[in-house]
Every structure is written in structure tokens, then in C-alpha cells.
């Protein structure tokens, strides 16, 4: 009596519906009704995720902190209230320093490359059971973000924007299996780098006469009209290359500059540079001094949030919700 | 329990699961692929309500997960997988009432199949091309994490639904 005709009929109908949805979406290629559905989902759920990320962040940081403090944590609990407060400040500090350093790097990159960026915070990461590498960021159309814009951080290429709502946007990360980007080699030759999830990225050269060596740095070649990729963004280092026969195209593996496991602060390039920065960013020195205000790029066209203002940076005083 | 209350409770659980998946489990960056609380919620729900409402619940939950960010796959893929999870877990409704081990086994089976179907549909529609050998690892790790979470997620939900709904609907 558990698996009646009716039950099986329902199951068959539902499976058929799901399959039809997939097929229709496959054919519509992200446009039409399905594009609208995604946009509605982003508009409705984006702010909720944003809120949840704000709630969860202190908890996550607290977990990290406890883990790093280890056995010391027990002792700390027994200390007086005053000592506890001091410790809390101490614990919050590395995160703020880390964030400040990330922001510095981002500003450095955007000023050398002459990119105009909108800083953003990663608020959710989707892994679609490990086959889909996407993230939600807390800036949207109100901040001047549009689909098919390049997303970078202080280390290099993060991905590209696919969907945008008023306050949030979805980013496909560069290691997504569907991700391909055109890259330029130091000698001017062109190749294509593709993501493979957790595995290393792959490089495929176009010209069969060009040869590369491991250790070569790659930057984006820039798409037509700088969409979806602006030029000159560091992508990664070649780690291994194939040894093809004469007349065959060489391939290789690439280690991305960006650490996708710890994505936090990113920037959406809202305006590309007028000239190709080429390899300028590969050679960018480690910033020894803090970047001055004059080095920052021009403000964003529609600054509902000013470009220079980092997204929800925790205040210098420790949040009372800590611990 | 009225139909409206039941639907509301289910949608609440689904949204909570999606939120936690995206904001907590996703960013943790566990080795392999992360667990899916959503599939566990669907399986737990179906264990109490049976195969047909389990299949419907799974479809609805999967569809929501297909649409909300940061999902960027073909709409319907998760609906397909979660629908099967609900149906399969629902088949073990009577056993689940009798023994905890049967309930856990049913959840494990359903979730493993669901993850496999989701991954498989990605391969068929070319959305997971190039993942190659990583695929079995991802499926296995995701299911493994799910099983670790099962004792903490499934019993609370099943007991909650049972308490709210003393007379179990007939399928």
C-alpha cells in the first residue's frame, strides 16, 4: 500500500516537469522566463543572504578564533571581565588587519591597472555539490554593477558577474568548470585558461608555433568591448606544460593567483582602463607603504555607495556580539 | 495540522536549509564537496509524510534552490534530484517509524541517489564538463558529510512533524 499507482503517477509527472524545465532552460540559454525567475530569486533572496551573512560572520570568526586559541580558551574563560574585553579586542584585530591589507591590495591593483572598481564583500558561496563554483556579493545594480563585468581582488582574476539584482550579484568564479578566459602571454601570444573546480586550471595555446615554460605569468587578454573581461588582470602562473610535436598546440596547467578558498573582499570592475596595462600587474611590488588617497581611482558613476568606502567593515571597537 | 501550517513550516525549513548551505557550509570549504542540508530536510520530511507528498515537497524545495542565488545551473536540475530523494525516503515511512537504523539507512540511500542525479544531470547537460575524476570524489564526500549531519538534522524534523500531525496522511 506504500507505493500505489497514484504515487507513481505523481512521481512521473514531477520528474517529467523537472526534465521539461531543464530542457527549456537549456534552450532559452538564460534568457526569457528563466532569466526573470533567476532575477526574482536574486532580488528576493539576495538581501536575506546578505543579512544572514552579517549574522553568521561573527560566529564564524569566533569559531576560527577559538580553534586558533586551542587550549588557551579554557583559561581565558576564567579570567576577569576586564581581561576578557582586552582579549576580545586582540582577537578581532587580526581580522581587521587582514581586511585592511586586502583592501590595500585591491586599491593597489586597481590603481596600477587604472581599473575603476566597486569594492564588494562575498556573502555566500555556492558549490552545487562541487560542480558549480559561484558566489554572491553584496553590491548590485544600485552600485553600478551590470552582468558580464569582471570581478577581481588584490591577487588577480576572481570571476565574472552573471546575474544582478538591486543590492546583490552572482559571480561565476574562475575555477568553475564552465569558465573560460582569454589570456595573454609575455610574448604577446594568446591562450585560453579554463577552470576545473578544485583541480588546477588548464591552459590551451592558440598558435601552434608558440612555446611556453613553467613559471610564466598570465594576464587576461581582454574581451571585445572589455566585456566580460577587461585586459591586464593577472590570472595565474603556468605550473606545467606539455611537450607537443612540431605543429601541435601546446597545453599546460595553471595555478591561479587568487586563493578561492578564502575569498572575502573583491572588486567589480565597472570601468576598464583606456589602454592595456599588459603585464604591469604581474610585476606589481608588494606595497610597502599604505596607498595614498591620490592613488585611488575616480569615484564610481552612480555612487549610492561611494567607491572608496569598503563594504561592511567591522568597526574598530569589538562588536558586543563577539564571544 | 492544517495544510497551510504544514506548507509554511516546510517552506521555512527549506529556506533555512538553503541559507545555511550558502552562508555557513559553503564558505567552510571542506575537502571535497560540501553537504546539502536541503536534501536532508526533504528526506526527513518524506520519512513522515510518505512517498507522494515527499516527491512533491522535494520538487518544490529543489525548484526554490534552483532559482535562488548563488545557484547558476539549469533550472530544474535540483528539482529533479530532490523530487527523487523525497519519493525514495517516503517509501520507507513505515520502517522509519519502527527503527532509527532504518530511518538513517533510508536517508543515506535517498541522499546518495539525489546527489548522484544532480551531478549526473550536470554531466549530461555539459555543466560539469572537465570535472572528470573529481566527480566520484565530490559525490562521495558530499554524501559522507550529509550522513554525519543526519543524526542532528533528521530526528528533530521528523519528531516535529509527527507531533504536529498525529494522524499521518494516507498515501
From TrEMBL, chain A:
Keywords from the named record: Cell shape
GO biological process, one term: regulation of cell shape
InterPro entries given in the database record: Cell/Rod_1, Cell/Rod_MreC_2, MreC, MreC_beta-barrel_core
Biased composition, class Pro residues, residue ranges: 298-323
Rod shape-determining protein MreC beta-barrel core domain sequence ranges: 132-269
Residues making up the signal peptide according to the UniProt record: none
Taxonomy, superkingdom: Bacteria
Any one GO cellular component localisation term in the record: plasma membrane
Gene3D superfamilies: Rod shape-determining protein MreC, domain 1 (2.40.10.340), Rod shape-determining protein MreC, domain 2 (2.40.10.350)
UniProt-listed Pfam families: MreC (PF04085)
Region of interest: Disordered: 294-323
Biological role stated in the UniProt entry: Involved in formation and maintenance of cell shape.
Listed NCBIfam families: PRK13922.11-5 (NF010510)
Family in the record: Belongs to the MreC family.
Annotated protein name in UniProt: Cell shape-determining protein MreC
From TrEMBL, chain B:
Matches recorded under Pfam families: MreD
Membrane topology category: Multi-pass membrane protein
GO biological processes: regulation of cell shape
Keywords noted in UniProt: Cell membrane, Cell shape, Membrane, Transmembrane, Transmembrane helix
Cellular component per GO, a single term: plasma membrane
Compartment(s): Cell membrane
Top-level taxon in the UniProt lineage: Bacteria
Main location: membrane
Positions of transmembrane segments: 38-63, 75-94, 100-125
InterPro entries tied to this protein: Cell_shape_determining_MreD
Family according to the record: Belongs to the MreD family.
Name of the protein this chain belongs to: Rod shape-determining protein MreD
Organism of this sequence: Acidothermus cellulolyticus (strain ATCC 43068 / DSM 8971 / 11B)
